[in-house]
Design brief:
Arc Repressor Mutant, subunit A, single chain, disordered N terminus, 146 residues, two-stranded antiparallel ribbon
């Protein structure tokens, strides 16, 4: 007889629920919380807890709303942080396109999940509703870099 892998303990406790709540309110995802806390169960068990424990479901939904605000705040912080936008090379000061694109990726990822987890934040994409803002990098000559 082949034995399966031993699974994580799956008994719900208010302490485990509170730990998940606190970490979600810090902006963490369920996957990252579970990776950092081996005493917690698999993701499917957490979703089972949400379905079957009213107190956990309420905490979970509240934490999701707080996390949306955290992610929105992070978007502003990332956008406002220009500390890595320029680098000095032997050719002079130039745009650090890798850092700029990475910041854009970080913002877009958060925006995607905010819209996914709270659809009222999403707006239909209609070019007639207002101006489109395009972000691009410029070289030392002021010309756009593709």
């Amino acid at each position: 007889m082949t034995k399966g892998k031993a699974g994580r303990k799956s008994v719900y406790t208010k302490e485990k629920g509170k730990l998940i709540f606190d970490e979600m309110c810090r902006g963490k995802t369920i996957l990252s919380i579970l990776k950092e806390n081996p005493e917690l169960p698999a993701r499917s068990t957490v979703y089972h807890w949400r379905k079957n424990h009213d107190d956990f479901r309420e905490m979970f939904e509240e934490a999701r709303m707080v996390r949306i605000e955290v992610w929105a705040d992070e978007c502003f912080a990332i956008a406002d942080d220009d500390s890595n936008d320029l680098i000095t090379t032997e050719k002079g000061v130039i745009a650090n396109n890798a850092a700029i694109r990475r910041a854009e990726l970080r913002i877009n990822l958060r925006k995607f999940f905010v819209e996914r987890q709270h659809p009222s934040f999403a707006k239909e994409k209609d070019e007639t509703t207002g101006p489109v803002v395009q972000i691009y990098s410029v070289g030392t000559d002021g010309e756009p870099i593709n």
